[in-house]
Specification:
Strands 3-2-1-4-5-6 form a 6-stranded parallel sheet, with helices on both faces. Helix 7 links the parallel strand 4 and strand 5. With about 180 residues, it is of the alpha/beta class. Helix content is about 45%, strand content about 20%. The two termini are about 25 Å apart. The longest helix has 17 residues. It has a single domain, classed as Isochorismatase-like (Rossmann fold), CATH 3.40.50.850. The protein has 10 helices and 6 strands; from the N terminus they run βααβααβααβαβαβαα.
Amino acid sequence: MLIDPRQATLLVVDIQERLIGAMSDPQGMRERARWLLAASAELDVPTVISEQYPKGLGPTLSELKAATPQAEVVQKLHFSCVAADCLPPSLLAREQVIVCGMETHVCVLQTVLGLLALGKQVFVVEDVCDSRTPASKAAGLARMRDAGAQIVTGEMVLFELLGSASHPLFRHISKTYLVGERS
């Protein structure tokens, strides 16, 4: 199955100030997340950002909020966004959810398993997920794949959202986000 821009929402899980420094690749995570959020915003993908206990872990990284100012921010105490019942009806009304965030083996995993239980088609952006250790990230991704989530990369997401080189934004997105190397 491919990502359908008319049915997809981007869910960004817990990329927060006081948590990012503990990740295995904090700088790369910051850059890849900003890249995906900015490109998705240009393609008008509805975006929801979750924050795990922001009083303790701080808010979402400011550069991510700036990259997607239209995003709805929700707060939670449960590790799973589904268990926290914090996802807006706009996200739940769509068939597909593109998920990225931290930590892969905790909040991302539990959220993805909850979305799958709701019957959603879930796409986990492997290169925009991180955990404190590479082993924990790998285990989380494997478990999500085994449960039925599609594991994708940021570039896969963009090309599927574009669908064709005839898309009106193809040249712009290609030049801005897909040309050359990125972290």
